[in-house]
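Worked example 3. Consider a protein that binds zinc ion.
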Amino acid sequence: MTDTHCLFCKIIAGQIPSRKVFEDEHLYAFHDIAPWAPVHFLVVPKLHIPSMAQLTPEHAPLMGHLMTLLPQLALAQGCRPYPEGGYRIVTNTGVEGGQEVHHMHWHVMGGPRPWLRG
Ligand code: 5GP
Ligand code: ZN
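Given these inputs, the predicted complex is written out as structure tokens:
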């Protein structure tokens, strides 16, 4: 399912260019256009799910896949290993949660501090 008005659906479809980090059958990852940290990329399901508020038990396999992949992608993108290194994983949900793009996504931020934000 895609939403023709959704920015991230357009990025996944290649209608808007992005700097790809990773792609498989279910997920797409790309560099954030306005990074807060030396490493800052976004991971999105290819399925248009607006936010975590729409998750149901049938999404559990997708979420498990996503959560176990994020640490691998973080290291591959240059985050240093735990515990001296590490990374911050953020998901904003809804307007009061700071969500601007309503296609569920995970921010992965890391690299040497200080960061611009976060
Ligand atoms: P949110 O505030 O919804 O959690 O995060 C949306 C993120 O998408 C922001 O960090 C913003 O910089 C990023 N973003 C917005 N538009 C684009 C775009 O066209 N391309 C890319 N790569 N990132 C975008
Ligand atoms: Zn979408």
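Take a moment to read the result before moving on. The chain has one domain: 7-110. The chain is about 20% helix and 20% strand.
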